Amino acid sequence: MANIVKRDQKRQPTHPGEILREDVLPALAITVSEAAEGLGISRQTLHRILAEKLSVSPAMALRLGKFCGNNATIWLNMQRTYDLWHAEREISKDLSRIKTRKVAA
Fold first, then answer.
1. 41-80 residues labelled b (16+ CB within 10 A) or e (exposed)
2. Of 7-11, 80-84, 92-96, where does mean pLDDT reach its minimum?
3. How high is the pLDDT of residue 10?
4. Which fold, 16-96?
5. Among 77, 87, 92, 88, which residue's Cα sits nearest to residue 14?
6. Contact of 49 with 17, CB cutoff 8 Å
7. Which of 2, 75, 81, 87 could covalently link to 13 via disulfide, CB atoms 3.0 to 4.6 Å apart?
8. Cα separation of 87 and 105, whole Å?
9. Model confidence over 22-58: pLDDT tens digits?
10. Residue ranges of domains in the chain
């Protein structure tokens, strides 16, 4: 049986760029330039992800999954969680005014 980790919903999720910046690149002991070259992207693109200014797209998730030896789903899930958390806060007032409808059984 898989262990399910519950995340504190009040705490902002970590952007995938922070994981790359703080954990992955230091663990690999490589520079941003080396990582960008290995990923087949520009240094500027990687810098924007590391600075949390650019989201991880499905194509980038595939590159990161291959580069890090895990999979694209991990990177997409991190980005999705981050984006949903921010979107929910941005439109929370609108959401509170939407009535939930249930389909008749």
1. eeeeebbebbeeebbbeeebbebbbebbeeebeebbebbe
2. 7-11
3. 83
4. 434 Repressor (Amino-terminal Domain) (1.10.260)
5. 77
6. yes
7. 81
8. 31
9. 999 999 999 999 999 999 999 999 999 999 999 999 9
10. 16-96
